[in-house]
Amino acid sequence: MQQAPHPLTYKFVRYCVNKAYSKLLAGFKENDANILYSIETIVNELRNAEGGFRSANDVVNFLTGDFLSEYRRAISTLKSDLTTQLFRNILANCMDLDEVKNDAELMSVIRSVMDKMASIKPEEKLAEEVNTAS
Q1: What pLDDT band is residue 2 in, cutting at 50, 70 and 90?
Q2: How many Cα atoms occupy the beta-carbon half-sphere of 30 within 13 Å?
Q3: What is the Cα–Cα distance from 63 to 46, expressed in whole angstroms?
Q4: CA 34 to CA 63: how far, in whole Å?
Q5: What distance in Å separates the CA atoms of residue 118 and residue 123, rounded to the nearest whole number?
Q6: Is 25 helix (H, G, I), strand (E, B) or coil?
Q7: Do 71 and 120 form a contact (C-beta atoms < 8 A)?
Q8: How far apart (Å, rounded) are the C-alpha atoms in residues 50 and 11?
Q9: Are 12 and 104 in contact (CB under 8 A)?
Q10: Of 110, 90, 111, 109, which Cα lies nearest the Cα of 45?
Q11: pTM of the model
Q12: What is the mean pLDDT of the chain?
């Protein structure tokens, strides 16, 4: 009998990402279409990752790899605290899930990713290129 997928494999996008995105939009006061488009692009990239999730381990691998890479790229291209807010809220939403709260290993991984995010600084060259193009 095939084991059911871990709920985080489908709740990552439906709960963690989408809830963080809607919360960000609700508080979006700037009238800058470029920032909004960039954030939508980031969210779509994160949503697309779900196609590769078959187990909780796939989600863990994504969070510790591509998620952090996407964050690094996002903070380097957007001069906005909105990016950090979005990524932190995604992780906070995941930590709110019972399936994560009851799994010490998953909780530890998410906390570790949050800690790593705090140490990531924007790459100046990327930020300069985007600012010059604007």
Answers
A1: low
A2: 11
A3: 10
A4: 26
A5: 14
A6: helix
A7: yes
A8: 9
A9: no
A10: 90
A11: 0.85
A12: 86
pLDDT in tens, 82-99: 889 999 999 999 999 999
Instruction: With beta carbons less than 8 A apart as the criterion, state whether 97 and 11 touch.
Output: yes
Residue 76 is predicted with a pLDDT of: 87
Question: What whole-number distance in Å separates Cα of residue 28 and Cα of residue 101?
Answer: 29
Angle, vertex CA 46, rays to CA 41 and CA 47, nearest 5: 95
Q: Are 81 and 87 in contact (CB under 8 A)?
A: no
Q: Positive or negative, the Cα torsion across 93, 9, 112, 117?
A: negative
Question: Rounded to whole angstroms, how far apart are CA atoms 126 and 22?
Answer: 27
